[in-house]
Design goal:
The complex is a heterodimer. By secondary structure, chain A is of the alpha/beta class. Chain A is 29% helix and 28% strand. By secondary structure, chain B is mainly beta. Chain B has a 6-stranded antiparallel beta sheet, with no helix packed on it. The two termini of chain B are 13 Å apart. Classes of the chains: A alpha/beta, B mainly beta.
């Protein structure tokens, strides 16, 4: 069905970049920077109704940020109903956009936004999630991490993190902070910025959700001392040099995401499956997962499998034992 | 109607392509066709094929309806404007909600009112364009509106179900028809006994208004973006599968009965349906640009006449003229085809 829905659309799906971050972290500054620095490109900007600062763009749509549960038996499968509608309407306009930028409210959970691009076939046929960018206020993020769920979730979901207002804190403080962000999300790219000054190419067209762009997972565990903060959202990286049995893996990951999908925010993996000449690549958001064959292993290449889970209250030993049991 | 033999193909009398996708089509009572386009224009096509371009919106036209007088048209756009276009082409702005996409509209001829939506709010406008009533007493933003056949009641589709208002007292004494999930479109049966919704989860839900009893129809391949009714016997006709799926509402209702299927064998997804105003026929538009007119027949095998071959563009709108002699089909590539079915092919 989705195949027939897609092949009648001649144009390629429009990339969508999601900007998250606490109120005052600098999302609107980043947005206006992207809009003014990338001359000659057309953007549609979807803002939330509480956005108070003007956005300098021809096309700005107000969103209601309505998070709906899909009535499909999956309790954590929430989507942004308003986005499905707004994106469908935007694509009816004459001419093409280069990208759609979505600014979320400070307290927004990024999961429903991401899941919208996994579960809605109409949205999938016209738009693709490019990346989630989280702007963090270096001065206030520690307090936010200590007093709220959302701050950690926004960091956990990020493909790119702007550690903004870096000029307002001392250098060693910034290093500690970066280590703490790393412990939550070891795969995101972190940029230290002042007033969100970052080249637009570092934010736009990242293809962070394209399976064929997940070429390598190199979890970057800076500073083990970060664990002393004991954030509820943490990450677990697993590595295995023996090849993996596809059936055992499917059964394990399926059960794991079904049972623990509420607390596993994001997952990513590159697998060496026994009998396959290609890498198998997968990624997931909560209980939703997609996977496909990636490029073939090179002749002299060391084959190995790597997984990263980011989530709440992850049991590293249990995950490691489960994955080890998938060895062929 | 040239429906005698299946291979007969009627060439379109007019086929033109505009600068963006066709987002809606409707005929006025006198046979003037209005086609809404993604470039903000309304294309008014006369009986002779003469076309007048009206720049009704800045952005895409998102919804289109025949006006209360039956002669002109009303449109909503992603410029947040609600615009009335008279049959001669002059436009009047009825409403403006900056930053909003106006994509929901319903018109009641008998009640002489039109209704539109801004977020959670329904606004009821009279024939002069004045807002007569408004209410935001809905649990989420509104996805669909439908007046019942007499116009006395207004059904409002939103997350979690449908709110029914009495049009005369909008905002007071709502009836709530509840069902978990996002209801993305709503329609009344022609006899006013049932309210049916299309859902985000690729199914239909519905209620018998008298007692609130639920119905559900599942098994669609996509969301049901187009639904229409055959008046006699009352039958709900839907898109969303690889054939036209129709649910008979006569007798005890559709529960436990298989649907009537027609237009099979083309092997493409039906994206639009439009029931002929006089005869038991349905026009079906497919996701590759094909158009067929299909017979409804419970007793024998349904026949279909293919009117348009596929060109890779999805059919995004279909409309019959009120006398049933002309059929308009629009694609999301911007092509508008008008088939003249009054004249048998040579």
């Amino acid at each position: 069905m989705s195949a027939t829905a897609q092949d009648s659309i001649a144009r390629s799906p429009i990339p969508v970049t999601v900007l998250t971050g606490y109120l005052g972290a600098g999302k609107t500054t980043l947005l206006n920077r992207l809009l003014t620095e990338e001359h000659g490109k057309r953007y549609a900007v979807i803002v939330n109704e509480f956005g108070e600062i003007g956005i300098d763009n021809e096309l700005v749509v107000d969103a209601d940020e309505e998070v709906f549960e899909m009535n499909n038996g999956c309790i954590c499968c929430t989507v942004r109903g308003d986005l499905i509608r707004i994106i469908g309407n935007l694509l009816k306009r004459k001419g093409k956009f280069d990208a759609i930028l979505i600014e979320t409210t400070g307290l927004a959970d990024p999961a429903p936004v991401a899941q919208t691009f996994f579960v809605d076939d109409e949205v999938r046929s016209v738009a693709r999630l490019d990346s989630i960018v989280t702007v963090v206020d270096a001065k206030n993020v520690v307090a936010r991490l200590d007093d709220s769920h959302e701050a950690a979730e926004q960091i956990a979901f990020a493909d790119v993190i702007l550690l903004n207002k870096g000029d307002l804190v001392a250098a060693d403080e910034l290093a500690t902070l970066e280590a703490r962000l790393r412990a939550i999300n070891p795969t995101a790219i972190i940029h230290r910025t002042e007033r969100c000054a970052v080249p637009p190419t570092e934010i736009l067209d990242r293809r962070a959700f394209d399976l064929d762009r997940i070429l390598a997972i190199e979890p970057d565990f800076l500073g083990e001392d970060a664990h002393e903060h004991d954030d509820a959202v943490t990450s677990v990286a697993l590595r295995e040099t023996r090849s993996i049995d596809v059936n055992r893996f499917n059964q394990w990951i399926g059960t794991l995401l079904r049972e623990k999908g509420l607390s596993i925010l994001r997952s990513k993996g590159i697998l060496d499956l026994k009998g396959s000449p290609n890498r198998f690549i997968f990624q997931g958001v909560h209980m939703l997962m997609e996977g496909d064959d990636g490029k073939p292993w090179g002749q002299d290449e060391v084959r190995e499998s790597k997984l990263v889970f980011i989530g709440r209250d992850l049991d590293a030993d249990e995950l490691r034992a489960g994955f080890t049991a998938c060895v062929a | 109607m040239p429906l005698a033999e299946p291979p007969v193909r009627v060439p379109p009398s007019v086929e033109v392509t505009f600068g963006a996708g066709i987002t809606g089509a409707v005929f006025s009572e006198s046979g003037l066709l209005a086609a809404a386009v993604g470039d903000g224009t309304l294309q008014l096509v006369g009986l002779g094929g003469d076309t007048r371009t009206v720049q009704a919106h800045d952005g895409a036209v998102l919804c289109l309806a025949r006006d209360i007088d039956g002669r002109g048209f009303v449109t909503g756009g992603d410029d947040g404007r609600l615009v009335r276009t008279a049959n001669a082409g002059e436009t009047t702005e009825l409403m403006h909600a900056p930053g909003r996409q106006l994509d929901v509209l319903a018109v009641s001829r008998p009640w002489k009112m039109l209704a539109t939506v801004v977020g959670k709010e329904v606004r009821l406008l009279d024939a002069a364009g004045n807002v007569q009533a408004r209410t935001s007493a809905h649990p989420s933003t509104i996805y669909g509106l439908a007046f019942n056949p007499k116009g006395k009641r207004l059904a409002v589709a939103h997350y979690g179900g449908v709110t029914l208002w009495w049009t005369a007292t909008l905002g007071q004494t709502p009836s709530r028809l509840t069902w978990r999930g996002s209801h993305i479109g709503v329609s009344w049966s022609p006899d006013g006994t049932h309210v049916m919704t299309a859902m985000q989860e690729c199914e239909l839900h519905g209620w018998r208004v008298a007692d609130g009893n639920d119905l559900a129809m599942r098994g669609y391949a996509t969301k049901v973006r187009s639904l229409d009714w055959l008046a006699r016997p009352p039958t709900l006709v839907t898109s969303g599968a690889d054939c036209v799926v129709a649910w008979p509402f006569s007798g005890s209702g559709p529960q436990g009965k298989p649907p009537i299927e027609t237009g099979q064998g083309i092997g493409r997804l039906v994206t639009q349906v439009a029931v002929h105003p006089l005869r038991p026929l349905v026009a079906a538009g497919f996701d590759d640009g094909r158009v067929a007119v299909c017979e409804f027949s419970i007793d024998r095998e349904s026949r279909a006449v293919r009117l348009r071959p596929g060109d890779g563009q999805r059919i995004s709108s279909l409309a019959w003229s009120q006398d049933g002699t002309r059929l308009a089909a629009g694609t999301d590539g911007g092509t508008l085809a008008i088939f003249d079915l009054a004249v048998p092919p040579a």
